[in-house]
Amino acid sequence: MTKRNIDPSLIPFLKSLLSIILQISLIISVLSMIGVEMTSFIAILGAAGLAVGLALKDTLQNFAAGVMILFFKPYRVGDWIEFEGLSGRVKEIQIFNTILTTIENKRVIIPNGVLQSNSITNFSAEDKRRIEWIFSIAYGDDYDLAKNLLLKWIKEDSRILEDEDPRIVLSELADSSVNIRVWVWVKKANFQPVKFDFNEKVYKEFPQNGLSIPFPQMDVNINK
């Protein structure tokens, strides 16, 4: 199936569906071979199917949700998604469940109905992602120096997209710090590497250039 350019998301789903159809066909064939009257059997099966359908309401909902997910494609196999604070890469979309692999390599199984009826974040849907940082310097430090250093490092990093202008603003005069907000755009594969590299660069090189990285503090005055 893969060689014919079928969406990889469909393969586990179709395998599960085909397995169920084959099992039902096998049961019907065996019953027919041993002489069971199929007309009566089908009538009984229909009545039983109604009762089972009511009992398996959630299971059928998960099946229907799986079909909707494969049709509308809010996510595909290989996408990185987040749901209710849990994030992971989509490993399989099965007939009833979606399987995620977390960054810790944990296997998480989520019913399709739950994912279909709730909000999810798909981090792989777009080619580009925006990184946002908030870097802090102390009151009295040279803001222009900090801004120019950040611009220099941004221009030197080839992973940051040149067609999207970076933004650097003095976003807040906080209680213990002057906060600088930075936005850049990168290809989605470079999101974490660039983010972590800049955190390390600022931590190491701000102090080397005479810029302090403040921490919350409180002055206590004691009157005698």
From TrEMBL:
Please tell me whether the keyword Transmembrane is annotated for this protein: yes
Q: Which InterPro entries match?
A: LSM_dom_sf, MS_channel_1st, MS_channel_C, MscS_archaea/bacteria_type, MscS_beta-dom_sf, MscS_channel_2nd, MscS_channel_C_sf, MscS_channel_TM-2
TM ranges: 12-32, 38-56
**What keywords were assigned to this record?**
Cell membrane, Membrane, Transmembrane, Transmembrane helix
UniProt-listed Pfam families:
MS_channel_1st (PF21088), MS_channel_2nd (PF00924), MS_channel_3rd (PF21082)
The Mechanosensitive ion channel MscS C-terminal domain covers 131-213
Residue ranges occupied by any Mechanosensitive ion channel transmembrane helices 2/3 domain in the UniProt entry: 17-57
Predominant location of this chain?
A: membrane
One annotated GO molecular function: mechanosensitive monoatomic ion channel activity
Q: What is the protein's membrane topology class?
A: Multi-pass membrane protein
Gene Ontology terms, cellular component aspect?
A: plasma membrane
Keyword hit for Membrane = yes
Mechanosensitive ion channel MscS domain boundaries: 58-124
Q: Where in the cell is it found?
A: Cell membrane
PANTHER family associated with the record: SMALL-CONDUCTANCE MECHANOSENSITIVE CHANNEL
Name of this chain's protein: Mechanosensitive ion channel protein MscS
Q: What is the protein's species of origin? A: marine metagenome
